[in-house]
Write a structure and sequence with these properties.
It is built from eight helices and five strands. The protein is of the alpha/beta class. Strand 2, helix 3 and strand 3 form a beta-alpha-beta unit.
């Protein structure tokens, strides 16, 4: 078993504007920096000792991981497999703009995201395959330990689903989740396998 502290990076201007960030490198804004400071405080108050911190290759995750690794004196490492979902042509667009231009696809992404590929983007199943590979490597390296994973939405929801079997839910609403953390315990025996 491994304990994963799923850490969502703090907010960016795109988050505040209701834009889809995806893989775009947008720095944390003032709110995002405050959220990261609160995440550090929450971890300290809970008495959580992180054995390692890994982060997705994007600026908000890097900035969040740097703050957490400094606060807990643990090295942070980038994991390419945690890279956010490729939203293709949706990246940079406001969510409301997508809903107005592509209402059918918007609704499908809201209700059955596994069946939708953002235009010129990536299917969730493809993302699950690479995340699953990362999780298996982390389990081998950190069995019995506590590992922080700094991952933005929607990848955080995808990762959580793989670990807990919970439904993805509305990924448009998930886009507004930033500066939050969750503690997940993973025993891979009952885990869903991505094909």
């Amino acid at each position: 078993m491994i304990t994963i502290v799923l850490i969502r990076p703090g907010a960016t201007d795109y988050d505040v504007q209701g834009r889809v960030r995806g893989r775009l490198d947008i720095p944390l804004n003032t709110l995002g920096a405050q959220e990261v400071a609160k995440e550090v405080d929450t971890l300290r108050e809970a008495g959580i000792h992180l054995n390692a911190v890994y982060y997705a290759p994007c600026r908000p995750a890097v900035e969040t991981a740097d703050a957490i690794s400094r606060a807990f004196d643990v090295k942070a490492k980038e994991l390419e497999g945690l890279e956010n979902l490729d939203y293709g042509l949706w990246q940079g667009m406001r969510i409301e703009e997508i809903r107005a231009r592509q209402p059918k696809i918007y609704r499908q992404w809201q209700e059955i995201p596994d069946c939708v590929c953002p235009p010129e983007g990536e299917m969730i199943e493809e993302a699950e395959v690479r995340v699953m590979d990362c999780l298996r490597r982390l389990l081998r390296r950190h069995r019995g330990q506590v590992v922080g994973l700094v991952v933005a939405e929607p990848m955080a929801s995808i990762l959580k689903r793989l670990i807990t079997q919970a439904p993805l839910g509305d990924l448009w609403k998930a886009e507004s989740r930033h500066g939050q953390l969750e503690i997940l315990r993973w025993d891979p025996t009952p885990m869903k396998t991505a094909s």
